[in-house]
Amino acid sequence: MALDTAPLLEVKGLKKYYPFKKGMFSSEVGYVRAVDGLDFTVQQGETLGIVGESGCGKSTVGQLILQLLEPTEGEIWFQGKDVSTLGKSELKQARRNLQMIFQDPYSSLNPRMRVEDIVGEPLKIFERYSKKERREKVVELLRLVGLDTHHLSRHPHEFSGGQRQRIGIARALALNPKIIVCDEAVSALDVSIQSQILNLLRKLQNELGLTYIFIAHGLPAVKHISDRIAVMYLGRIVELADRDTLFASPKHPYTKALLSAVPIPDPLLRKERIILQGDLPNPAAPPSGCHFHTRCPYAQPVCETKSPELMAYGGGQVAACHFPLEAE
Ligand code: SF4
Q: Measured from the CB, is residue 324 less than 6 Å from ligand 1?
């Protein structure tokens, strides 16, 4: 949960456009707007969930924050500094503090490396530890994530999916980062293993004061770990609120549709599932007006021509819709 009022991370007007080219002379004829003007903050110690369908730009946001991609426009402020203005050594320090846990624990670990080398690799690059010190640190990291000394000499194929994700988490923790971007970190795992990994992430957050940006395509995983949730559609945030408000009183029809897909064990509380018509539109040619109007069950003529701005509804909830939903 948030511990401080000054944000640890602040994103302002963030855009990432990819030009696409056509013809003999490869002239630019347009842009894919992967991320199209995002503003949000992340407080020290909180988890911000980012949710949306594949292709909505959520993973690109993670890569921009980690400095793996250069923004087309906009600013990313980390610990009160605009990262684009940092010198080489300050940028190196910022990179240490921003780590990632990847979606696929099968392909994100080098199959030829032993666990000791996988987890110790960031330490080898960034720290001047002796071999013995590095091994001690790796053992400490493995214990933190529920693995043991006898795992040191094993290779990734000798582990289950959940154990591999634990190795990935240990590697992400090696440099004592401030923020970890979890990009679909549990999506490839069985449901029972997902909850073990989510519990581990929460435990580590409490013990180490970590801040997470938790990216996922569905709300169930995001619900269990997030303090606040941003819902993205075609490169834009369409709603952002604290978790309980978002689940109890969504303002945007797209959020409501995502919520209707979340399984509810109690049959008396089950809601009718809203099936969205059609696929996510092409981000290179998004629909006019409200990008969601081609799939929205509440669309009115104005939605085709006028793009809705994010409006505040109190308690930090914002949503971009001309006809926000009333609480049920
Ligand atoms: Fe639906 Fe219109 Fe709201 Fe867009 S602005 S979400 S089309 S009601």
A: no
